[in-house]
Design goal:
single chain; mainly alpha; Cytochrome Bc1 Complex, Chain D, domain 2; two-stranded antiparallel ribbon; 12 helices; 45% helix; 4% strand; Cytochrome_c550/c551-like
């Protein structure tokens, strides 16, 4: 190209780039309210945001992948932990972690009930923002590590995908031909339910997260049912596991990490979010964890 053609090319390319930038900017602004779930910004959400900033939570935690990366990303925390858990945790984090053993340095902020309610509302709003998959692998709330490895359990499970034929199986998907094993289907439910069971439970012995390890759950359940300490209505292990999924507060596992004020921290939504078939498959998988 000669100088005139080069100059003309540069002008046209710049103009097209500027036009494209303006169109994309306009389109982004047009969708901001929808993408950010703006209609759900209540006074409680605003108050929670102010509590978040006042206590410099971002100095340790991240939201949308932005923050100090010292502590877990909290973008989807309200979908991974229920309100009862978050409320009890923020009242006194020391009940949930042994600082010497887990190296947790979460300070007790002495937050008021109003501040805690605001933070929970803020986290709930954040979790419903369409962040288009960012961060791609949010850090889950656990400091546990798998025995014999230096990889944390959160690294091993937060990005886990259950695939069949190279395609990730969505929650509630019907089994494909040759994929009728209820234990295998139950393991898929274990990893793909919302929230995923792997967010709170491990299947490794001694690795307790927000919920107790499920390794050996069958033997422990048998001992519980025979002990006289059981407070629920199940008659056998499979019934107890089913009850624990759909009615988690029927029997409370001892310990401040797992319940407060007579209410289990286990989500109560699985009974309506999962089909009876999926719950049976999940029970079949748990029954395999001898």
């Amino acid at each position: 190209m000669n100088k005139r053609q080069t100059r003309l090319f540069a002008i046209i390319a710049t103009a097209l780039s500027a036009a494209l930038f303006l169109i994309l900017t306009f389109d982004s602004h047009r969708k901001f309210d929808q993408l950010t779930n703006a209609e759900s910004i209540t006074p409680a959400v605003t108050h929670g945001k102010n509590v978040w900033h006042k206590n410099n939570c971002i100095n340790c935690h991240t939201i949308f992948g932005e923050g100090a990366y010292y502590a877990p990303d909290l973008t989807k925390i309200s979908k991974l932990r229920g309100e009862a858990y978050l409320k009890a945790y923020m009242k006194d984090p020391s009940k949930f972690y042994d600082e010497t053993r887990h190296r947790r340095l979460m300070p007790k902020q002495d937050l008021s009930d109003e501040d805690i309610a605001g933070l929970i509302a803020f986290f709930d709003w954040v979790s419903n923002v369409d962040n288009q998959g960012w961060p791609p692998r949010p850090i889950l709330v656990t400091g546990a590590t798998m025995p014999g490895t230096d990889r944390s359990l959160e690294q091993q499970t937060s990005g886990a995908k259950v695939e069949r034929g190279g395609i990730e199986a969505p929650p509630g998907a019907r089994p494909l031909a040759g994929d009728e094993n209820p234990i295998a289907l139950g393991e898929r439910v274990f990893r793909t339910a919302t929230p995923a069971c792997t967010a709170c439970h491990s299947t490794a012995p001694g690795v307790n997260m927000a919920g107790p390890s499920l390794a050996g759950i069958v033997g422990r359940s048998e001992a519980l049912l025979a002990s006289g300490d059981y407070k629920g209505h199940a008659k056998d292990v499979s019934g107890y596991l089913h009850e624990s999924i759909v009615e988690p507060s029927a029997h409370l596992v001892p310990g401040p990490m797992y319940s407060a004020d007579g209410t289990s921290f286990m989500p109560t939504t699985y009974g309506k979010d999962l089909t009876p078939e999926q719950i049976d498959q999940l029970v079949a998988y748990l029954m395999s964890l001898k």
